């Protein structure tokens, strides 16, 4: 059923989809089909305007400052969340009693929509980057925690027994068996975790800040500047794709041993 | 005590076999010995399942013992007891005269399933086996390279397990086990998942490596031909639960052997017939009572 198409053919199709979507958007907003173009454009802007605005924004050094802030928050949220998740994941996976005692609290904390914490974090950590890092942390922590927990718990018993028979002590097992296994699970959720770190940063900025991409979008929205909102979203999308590409690069480097390569998962 | 006496008696009768095998050791201490070992598991729902019962088995240094039995007869259970991975409910395990507690540090184990660390290359998988002994990394790597050469994988050192075939992975596992130079080798149907030709090649490789540096071996298999072709002595287990040893047969075929060719010897057939007469009873019992 699946006829193989070349790399170029696929790329052409992908571009075509984008162009068609833009063309529909353009036609519906520029020609009087849904109503007065001026009125429609107030709600939906036009692709040309959005691209023009995006270009203008990118040329303005101010946007790089916002991007840098968002990037900082994302990286800090990811690193702290991942470290916390790994530490607690290991601790709980190796200590059944601890895991059993804390189980209901962890489930409850994870079930809570993290967005509601944003105002509290703003109160606790101020309107600077740390309230956003805290929000991102709560999102990343649980993803990494559950994955590491699972990774340590689901180490193949045969691999484990074999390592024991090779004479490894607890430290050796941790280093050569538990740790790599947990990392595998963590990296399998790397895209999601990094994505959530960014969500935490942008939502945090959106809800209260003076800098960052989320702030830019919120600023445009508060004056009904739809073109500005779309331009901000476009920049955000490009930013996300760039970060995702870096993550894929890291993943491919770290998970060379995995059958079928590392790419394409999630 | 009476059980122990019986075990000693069997060992006495085996002296001649070992002479033919080439090791005339006058050593009375077994490399590994199970005395009246019973192993039970608690099943889900609290029911107790006795896997093996009253197992007496001694393996002399340099002796190759094969254990055969129908499925579910607890062959692997015996091996795990000798490895220290399972604690017997009853009876004792002694290793070179000392009671075993915890993991059997003097034994190497070759598992049926893939046991290599998938995140390490073939070379690292073999080299890491030396780490617990405190061997320096550079030396461990060079010795691992040497061992991979001995199992015929000199050009595959940088491959990860998933890039290797089933037979190649077993070769890596064999090198990983042997590089530590353990005095006892425990093998749990190691060549079970391989195809017939690869099994023969692996069997010959194993015999070749074993002949160069004789260890005490317990080799568990469901394949009687393989058991006879490899071993000095074949132990037959009864159908489970509560499997016991129901037969013990010396294999007096001359060494060195070629796994493929030895099966054509008339003597091989005679031994096969004799053991099969015992084993078939248990196999049919296992099928009659078992879920299969």
Automatic annotation (TrEMBL), chain A:
Tagged with keyword Cell membrane: yes
One Pfam short name: BPD_transp_1
UniProt-recorded name of the protein: Riboflavin transport system permease protein RibX
InterPro entries per record: MetI-like (IPR000515), MetI-like_sf (IPR035906)
Subcellular location: Cell membrane
Membrane topology note: Multi-pass membrane protein
Main localization of the protein described in the UniProt heading: membrane
CDD domains from the UniProt entry: TM_PBP2
Species whose genome carries this gene: Methylobacterium isbiliense
Residues forming coiled coils: none
Gene: ribX_2
Residues spanning the membrane: 74-93, 105-127, 133-152, 173-203, 223-250
Automatic annotation (TrEMBL), chain B:
InterPro entries for this protein: AAA+_ATPase, ABC_transporter-like_ATP-bd, ABC_transporter-like_CS, ABC_transporter_ATP-bind, P-loop_NTPase
UniProt-listed Pfam families: ABC_tran
GO molecular function annotations of the record: ATP binding
Stored CDD domains: ABC_NrtD_SsuB_transporters
Record's keyword annotation contains ATP-binding: yes
Domain ABC transporter: start-end pairs: 32-264
Top-rank lineage group of the source organism: Bacteria
Alphabetized UniProt keyword annotations: ATP-binding, Nucleotide-binding, Transport
Homology family: Belongs to the ABC transporter superfamily.
Protein name listed in UniProt: Bicarbonate transport ATP-binding protein CmpD
Species in which this protein is naturally found: Methylobacterium isbiliense
